[in-house]
Design goal:
mainly beta; single chain; 4-stranded antiparallel sheet; elongated; 12 strands
Length: 254
Amino acid sequence: MGRVIRGSRKGKSLIFTAKTRLRKGAVKLRAVDYAERQGYMKGLIKNIIHDPGRGAPLCEVVFHDPYRYKLKKELWVAVEGAHTGQFVYCGSKAQLAIGNVLPVGKMPEGTVISMCEEKATDRGRYARASGTSCMVVGHSDDGRKSRIRLPSGSRKSIPSTCRAIVGIVAGGGRMDKPVLKAGNNHHKYRVKRNSWPKVRGSAMNPVEHPHGGGNHQHVGHPTTVSRASVAGQKVGLIAARRTGLLRGGQKLKK
């Protein structure tokens, strides 16, 4: 019997879970209420803060509770151009301005958005990482569905009642600066999770990895592996339909 491989240990072990003790809280849009469905709510950006392990800055937005005499704090991903002391508006009647939150169906085509919902009222799923954004591509004729372009470039139809923040997530260009030394990566992943440094399978012993062993560092067999293979074998290119370089890209239709 070989040793349990790293990929299998990750499922069970608490060593590999995310480091969440110092994180600032769950990042979500406002919960949808009557005020947001019928009109709008005014909020104030109180503070822009750093969240450990996240590239994008967060902003603390304060709203008056519509039903009780108290304030409600929300944590959003800050968009570029947002500043402390800025008033932001949430709701179907809100204006199209940077930092405002409104349903995708109310936005014209070509609007750049972030923190976009996947299903209505799920409080923000797409384009939350630093520098990312979605774009409203079009609306269906009946006004029920809207088509957005995701940060990956793929397009997706979502219900028009899904909300999003107008603008691009702040903190863009984070990857442009070269890492330069391993210490920088060490500090980056120290606050994220235990996923660095990664030892290559071919650098291990045969007991620890299917690619291990041999007199030179080589795999020694095809790296494609079946979808049905047992957990200890599932390394490499799992259930690959094709391998190798992608040659001859498709021409974009103008």
